[in-house]
Structures are given as C-alpha cells and as structure tokens.
Design brief:
Arc Repressor Mutant, subunit A, 7 helices, single chain, rod-shaped, Rna Polymerase Sigma Factor, Chain: A
C-alpha cells in the first residue's frame, strides 16, 4: 500500500485540490489518508486498492470542503452582523455639540483672564511646563505661579458652571 501511495501521491494531491480548492488543504487531506491507511483504521478492498485510495482521499476532501464552507459562513456572516452592531468609536452628535460648547466657554473664560494668569495656566495645562519653568519665563516666584494657575482654573470652572 505504501508503494502504491507514494507512486500516486502527486495525482492524489491534484485530485484533492480540485475538491477542496486549495493545495495546502489538499496536501493535508492526502497526508490524513495515508495516516489512516497505515494506522489500520481503513482496510483497502482486495480488488482495487488504487480506487480505494482515491475514495478515501475523496471522502476526506469532501469533509474538509464542508468544514471550510461552514467555517467561512460562520466567520463572515457572524462577523458582518456583529460589525454593524458595534458602537461607533466616537461620541454621539449630542456629545460633540456639548463638548464644543464647553470648549467655547473655556476659550471665552481664558480670554477674560489677565494676560499673566492666562499664560501661566496655558503653559502649565496645555504646554506641560513645570511651575519652576513658568516662574522663570514670567520672572515671578513659583508660589505666585501656583496662585495664578489656581485662580485661572477657578475662573474657568465658574464660567462652565454658569452655562
């Protein structure tokens, strides 16, 4: 049986490929057929061993084709349905409008601040500068920088709360 298998292996792979539509799966099918024959789980018919070998390959190839079709439906159909039900990766239009209003209110509040307070607050919150760097830039003490930032934040919070 081994000599028969080895002498017809490439034809068996081509045969399985036509059924499953893919050479890699066809190779797997032929290998599985060989393993079944050598493990003794399949007994060749005494009259036509080559026909028996083709029948084993055909049955295994059909099983693989059915499994691939079933898996393909499961992954494509289910995935397509699930994708449409996923929440958007962005805020709702209402949340965008509310955020825009808050941003406009903060911008207006920043514009109302004295220049030194606004610069200190912007450098600290938006620029990521330390209080020491801000103090050096503005020529004031770090304690005063801290007070300016606190005053600026309180002013912005009160403007947002009044809206």
């Amino acid at each position: 049986m081994l000599e028969l298998f080895l002498s017809h292996r490439s034809e068996l792979v081509d045969y399985a490929r036509r059924i499953v539509g893919d050479r890699a799966h066809a190779e797997d099918v032929v290998q599985e057929a060989y393993l079944r024959l050598t493990a003794g789980t399949s007994e060749p018919s005494p009259g036509e061993p080559l026909a028996y070998l083709y029948r084993v390959v055909r049955n295994l190839a059909l099983d693989v084709r059915r499994r691939l079709a079933r898996d393909g439906r499961r992954f494509t159909d289910d995935a397509g349905d699930r994708i449409h039900h996923l929440p958007a990766d962005r805020p709702s239009p209402e949340a965008e409008v509310a955020a825009r209003r808050d941003l406009d209110a903060v911008a207006a509040a920043l514009a109302e601040l004295p220049e030194r307070t606004r610069i200190a607050l912007e450098m600290h919150r938006f620029g990521g500068h330390s209080m020491r760097e801000i103090a050096r830039r503005l020529g004031i003490s770090t304690g005063l920088v801290h007070a300016l930032i606190v005053d600026g934040l309180e002013h912005c919070r009160s403007r947002l709360a009044r809206r």
